[in-house]
Amino acid sequence: MIDELVRRAMDLDLDDPLQHFLDDFVPAKQGRLAAYLDGNSLGRPTKAAQSALAELVTDAWGSELIRGWTDGDDPWMQWPEQTGDLIADACLGAADGQTVVADSTTVMLYKLARAAVDAAPDGRDEIVLDTDNFPTDRYVLEGISRERGFNLRWIDADPDTGVTPDQIAAVVGERTALVVLSHVAYRSAWLADMPAITKIVHDAGALVLWDLCHSVGVVPMQLDEWGVDLAVGCTYKYLNGGPGAPAFGYVARRHQGNLRQPIHGWMGRAEPFEMAPGYVPAGGIRSLVSGTPPIVGMVPVRAGVQMVQRAKVEAIREKSVALTEFAIEVHDAWLAPLGVRLASPRDAKRRGGHITLCRNDFREVYRQLWDDGVIPDFRAPDGIRIGLAPLTTRFTDVTTSMELIRGSLG
Ligand SMILES: *Cc1c(COP(=O)(O)O)cnc(C)c1O
């Protein structure tokens, strides 16, 4: 007899209006994958990326060569802003001219945080951050605080949830220069209240920089309407840009004349091909670019973002909520009785696109799952993180993987 939850998963897959998008992704080789639950770490490749990469090699790169930068109807020189606008339109709720693609998230975060700190008025010498933010974010801000003599104000975030507006209100004040937070916490999936927190930071006279790595492409947002100052995000998670795909940075138009990022490269200079003495920033968001744009890396990003644009991020969010709700229900029925603990919010309004489950022996369980072709992520010390990228994850992937976890717990 088929389990009631397995039957439900099959019905949910049949009724899923986004199910057909899976056909637009490159399938794994036979026998290499039973269920993929890590689309929030590395999204799957689109078929469009596969063909566009081959096309780049033969056409624009192979035949046009150096002319690709400047000639034709889609010159590479414009790709950082164009791809940024595409992400802004599909995912960020942001108007054109405020987003570029360049660097890694780490480097982009450094550039924006340094720009904000350097522009802070005298007396504002504190950066607010939280203990549970992604490691690279913490390390970058620790480095900037040493470089610039700024103090770090640490918020102790609850690892099962995340930073609340009240916690922010309690620490910001006349010494705050910058607040840096993740929109969705990488471990718990806590979805921070971006509009409320942004307002609290502004009322204290400071700027806010949001890290969107775990929300872009899966949680809708309105950066312009909510008055966000700065944001960064990666393109290889829910945007399916591929390993090491370049990051994006957002600078609200009102700040573009005042903030100056610290890595003055020729590609962000006005008239780069004049090779003139002295750095003069290009106008607008372009000055966020430093060196030669990563064109090869942007090819799959464009394909991935276009896919999100076609599916619509609101519809993606709807399926994402249904997937995480269902995963929690299966956890409650099958795993909680065996001592597994949910380390993610139960309130869907405060939860992003993944969940984390904990038990003291999960490091070994996770290794066994990988051997069986079920691929979640492990987060030390005892968390299995289940990423449910809506365009590539089926409800039956949830039951398949949880059945295997249940079996391994005995
Ligand atoms: C994935 C992720 C990063 C990754 O940074 P890279 O420079 O691309 O390695 C940074 N911050 C957060 C919150 C992330 O989830």
Automatic annotation (TrEMBL):
Its EC number is 3.7.1.3. Coiled coil: none annotated. GO terms for biological process: anthranilate metabolic process; L-kynurenine catabolic process; L-tryptophan catabolic process to kynurenine; NAD+ biosynthetic process. InterPro entries: DegT/StrS_aminotransferase (IPR000653), Kynureninase (IPR010111), PyrdxlP-dep_Trfase (IPR015424), PyrdxlP-dep_Trfase_major (IPR015421), PyrdxlP-dep_Trfase_small (IPR015422). Pathway: Amino-acid degradation; L-kynurenine degradation; L-alanine and anthranilate from L-kynurenine: step 1/1; Cofactor biosynthesis; NAD(+) biosynthesis; quinolinate from L-kynurenine: step 2/3. Pfam families: DegT_DnrJ_EryC1, KYNU_C. Catalyzes the cleavage of L-kynurenine (L-Kyn) and L-3-hydroxykynurenine (L-3OHKyn) into anthranilic acid (AA) and 3-hydroxyanthranilic acid (3-OHAA), respectively. One of its GO terms (molecular function) is kynureninase activity. Belongs to the kynureninase family. Belongs to the DegT/DnrJ/EryC1 family. Keywords: Hydrolase, Pyridine nucleotide biosynthesis, Pyridoxal phosphate. Its cofactor is pyridoxal 5'-phosphate. NCBIfam families: kynureninase. This is Kynureninase. It is an enzyme of class 3 (hydrolase). It catalyses: 3-hydroxy-L-kynurenine + H2O = 3-hydroxyanthranilate + L-alanine + H(+); L-kynurenine + H2O = anthranilate + L-alanine + H(+). GO terms for cellular component: cytoplasm. Homodimer.
